Amino acid sequence: MTGTERHDDGRLIAGRYRLQRRIGGGAMGIVWLAKDELLDRTVAVKQLLLTPGLSAAEAEQARKRSAREARLAARLQHRHAITVFDVADDDGMPVLVMEYLPSRSLAEVLTAEGPLPPSEVARIGAHAASALAAAHSAGIVHRDVKPGNILLGDDGTAKITDFGISKAADDGTLTGSGRFAGTPAFLSPEAARGEKPDAASDVFSLGATLYAIVEGRFPYGDTENQMALLYAAAAGRVSPPRQAGPLTGVLAKMMHLEPAARPTMAELAAELGTLTDAPKDKRNRKPLYAGLALLVVAAAVVTTVLLTKDSGQNPNAAPPPATATATVTASATGSAPASSTAASTSTQASSSPANAPASMVQAVSDYYAIMPGQPDVGWTKLGPGLQAQGLASYKEWWSKVSSLRVTDGPRQTGADTVQVTIDYTYNGRQYHETHHLGMITRNGQTLINSDNGLGA
Predict the structure, then answer these.
(1) What is the CA radius of gyration of the chain?
(2) pTM surpassing 0.85?
(3) CATH code (residue 332)
(4) What domain count does the chain have?
(5) 3-class DSSP state for residue 266?
(6) Which of 92, 136, 241, 381 is most exposed, with minimal Cβ within 10 Å?
(7) Cis-peptide, bond into residue 263, ω within 30° of zero
(8) Domain span including residue 129
């Protein structure tokens, strides 16, 4: 099949699966309610779709990869995973025959009901994590964990679906064709930068999914601009949760910038299980931002260009810390006023805790003292997490910043975190943000490695 949908009601596939009605689907496939006439049972049949525009060789490669990955997914048997019963052939394309679960996707539940209480989110997360733990043990990486791929049954049971399908569709990485598998709103930073997703990437994506359903907003910001989302994802710009309650700590671990610092799925399943009896959130539910339904995007919409091109519209899409430790008014091509360094030192001395390592706060002060006037020098003060955006994009973003004023900080708020609140002008518009800067040390130099900016 190609990317064009066929009207297949009543058609028989592989001599036994009678298609009855379409029950779902998107860019990667169409899902049908079907009857297995051999075993006399109801099943779900997913017809995989090829991305439009593939060459004959690419299409053939995709077919073979799809069949291989579908058979791999069929090996997984878990009570919280949709079971793949069979992989049939339909006009040269593999068709997945799966367990049918009367259900709604988590994305549909959120759109209809709004944010869910932390205890309910913990229960859903524990179910999904247990299935993903089994998948990882079997060597299967999901690569596209998101609300649309978690189903909630009528009895409240959560089951995750589409194991291996995103990987099958385009090998899960940035390829020569420039296609990408995964939804930017829920991508891990390393996956957004084009690195091969692994089990730790699934952990991050599940964390981003749980964040969305408990917060009612997306960790990278509520924008429908896919470039802005991928740009923020590549730098790990996650806004701190506000309504997660007892889930706050576990979400922070799941969405840690460094993959090695994240817990395993098995550890998460156990920890989330202990939170299912947490006090339920009594707040009134509000409709989830309409963008959720729009952000379940095709796996082939984002290219490597997005990592090096700013949308030019949303400053929250830009990874670099957009802050200064003193009032600065300068063009991006000029030099910062000499007085900013002195003011920066004074601010740091008065706001940092007495026992804070001076080098960490000082590194932040030094960085802001030379911005926005000296982006080439500022670039050398960033760690690999922020440098992943590319120097060209970094300089382009700063070229649109005219004035900056620190209203609080910088001060150390964690073992490797410095917080600062700033007002700045970007493209002629005023913004007020609190930034939580993740710090690392490389070759004796303290660097700013991540920037979780929260607009106010």
Answers:
(1) 24
(2) no
(3) 3.10.450
(4) 3
(5) helix
(6) 92
(7) no
(8) 103-308
